[in-house]
Design brief:
Order of helices and strands: HHHHHHHHHHHHHHHH
CATH class: Mainly Alpha
Strand content: under 5%
Shape: globular
Distance between the termini: 112 Å
Number of helices: 16
Oligomer: single chain
Radius of gyration: 26 Å
Number of domains: 1
CATH superfamily: Ammonium transporter AmtB like domains
Largest sheet: none
CATH architecture: Orthogonal Bundle
Length: about 450
């Protein structure tokens, strides 16, 4: 090669190097832009993971609350129902529920009927781990089913109940959830429900109410002339433990519903949500105690427990925007409504063993309506639309499922089995065998 050609080639290379460098820099910038911020990804994923663990712990809370509020001859049955409904709910939510709720809704009525497929870790490049999002969302699904369990306790057979749970967790809950959280039609009209006063708690409440009406009351719960007969639970300490566990788990239920922890603002929001959640529950306890003292001259401990839960349900629709005082007012009103609703159900001869309908349905409706008072982006008309639509669909769908199961399989045990207790007739393992032996 001649000297002139070498000089010419070197000149061309010198001219090309800046362009190559710019192209390489552009390629690196594009790659960086396509990769999520690792800190954002990690903190969001940790939020979902810890939130899901806390909500999973609520399953223990429901179990203890129900075990304490049912009679001793039905405690094992409630324990079995709760661990089985949790397990079944998680599996069916993976099989069909998650994609039905979140995939391809696009402003419509539901998503895709397909199992959840998790990407490989190297391909999971969103703002959070998809697996932990599924884990967190599946806990909410199981919570809706737990609400039903307490209401229809002591007079429903195990397998028919689990068949209802299968439909609730696989079809009913995901469809209503898709309308708002999945980007469906309710989200388009401006309906707002931060963590599920309507989408979780009222759904469970409506399903519980239709079940209570179709299954009927426990034998002896109401006299022929309409009087209510009190059937005390087996263990107030156990019920109190359950309420405290639910209160504790609610910090994950509401706190992680911020759905992000990767910025200072998100972290501050999670903190505010947790404080407001705690405030509403505390106010719920005190208000329920005051109302009971004024009206009945005695403070029923079970009403105080449900007052805490009523406050928690009420604040769940919007725990971020209220002030400390507003959160206390919202929770306190929720608890007061629970105290009013419990005797109202008795007058209507609706047997709700643990008070789940007043707590989750009544307080859930109130909490959803209260959102516009602290969140200016929400409107009363949009909130009413969501309440009515979710309530109508859930009640009608649940009634169809309950009636179909009743017609095909039956729902109730025989009168003899119910009198004996479902621990003996359905489970075969008594929770308190020494007590049973002493009675004999």
């Amino acid at each position: 090669m001649t000297l002139s050609r070498i000089i010419h080639s070197a000149g061309l290379l010198a001219l090309a190097l800046p362009s190559l460098a710019l192209a390489q820099d552009a390629g690196v910038e594009a790659a960086v832009a396509a990769t999520p911020d690792p800190y954002f990804y990690v903190f969001n994923t940790v939020l979902f993971l810890l939130g899901g663990v806390l909500v999973m712990w609520m399953a223990a809370g429901f179990t203890m609350l129900e075990a304490g509020l049912v009679r001793s001859k039905n405690v094992s049955m409630q324990c079995l129902k709760n661990i089985s409904l949790y397990s079944l709910g998680v599996l069916v939510y993976w099989l069909v529920g998650y994609n039905l709720m979140y995939t391809g809704v696009d402003g419509g009525w539901f998503g895709q009927f397909a199992p959840m497929v998790f990407p490989a870790p190297s391909a999971d490049t969103g703002d959070y781990s998809l697996a932990t999002d599924f884990f967190y969302q599946s806990m909410f699904c199981a919570t809706a089913a737990s609400i039903v369990s307490g209401t229809v306790a002591e007079r429903v057979r195990l397998w028919p109940f689990l068949l209802f749970v299968l439909i609730l967790c696989g079809i009913i809950y995901p469809i209503t959830g898709s309308w708002a959280w999945g980007g469906g039609w309710l989200s388009q009209v401006g309906f707002s429900d931060f963590a599920g006063s309507t989408l979780v708690h009222s759904v469970g409440g409506w399903a519980a109410l239709t079940g209570a009406l179709i299954i009927g009351a426990r034998k002896g719960r109401f006299t022929a002339d309409g009087r209510s007969v009190v059937m005390p639970g087996s263990s107030i300490p156990l019920a109190t433990l359950g309420a405290f566990i639910l209160w504790f788990g609610w910090f994950g239920f509401n706190g992680a519903s911020q759905l992000a922890l990767g910025t200072i603002e998100d972290a501050a929001s999670v903190g505010r949500v947790v404080v407001n959640t705690n405030t509403a529950a505390a106010a719920g306890v005190i208000v329920s105690m005051i109302v009971m003292q004024v009206v009945y001259k005695k403070v029923d401990v079970t009403m105080a427990l449900n007052g805490a839960l009523g406050g928690l349900v009420a604040i769940t629709a919007e725990p971020l925007t209220p002030t400390f005082l507003s959160a206390a007012i919202i929770g306190g009103i929720g608890a007061a409504l629970v105290v009013v609703a419990v005797p109202l159900l008795d007058k209507l001869k609706i047997d709700d063993v643990v008070g789940a309908i007043p707590v989750h349905l009544v307080a859930g409706i109130w909490g959803t309506l209260a959102v516009p008072f602290t969140n200016p982006e929400a409107s009363v008309s949009a909130q009413l639309t969501g309440i009515v639509a979710v309530g109508a669909f859930t009640a009608i769908a649940s009634a169809i499922v309950w009636l179909a199961i009743k017609a095909v399989f039956g729902l109730r045990p025989s009168e003899e089995e119910e009198a004996l207790g479902l621990d003996r007739s359905e489970v075969g393992v008594e929770a308190y065998p020494e007590f049973s032996a002493a009675r004999l």
